[in-house]
Fold this protein.
Amino acid sequence: MTHDNDHDNELDPFAARVRALETILTQKGLIDPAAIDVIVDTYET
């Protein structure tokens, strides 16, 4: 059986783990995704 799925949209294991943690912490009200984005932007540049 062949798979014709587009694999370009798959996350690498590290990115998938980060996304999962962010989702859980956001759902529990422990982090604000907008605040995380600001912090990431600060350290990326």
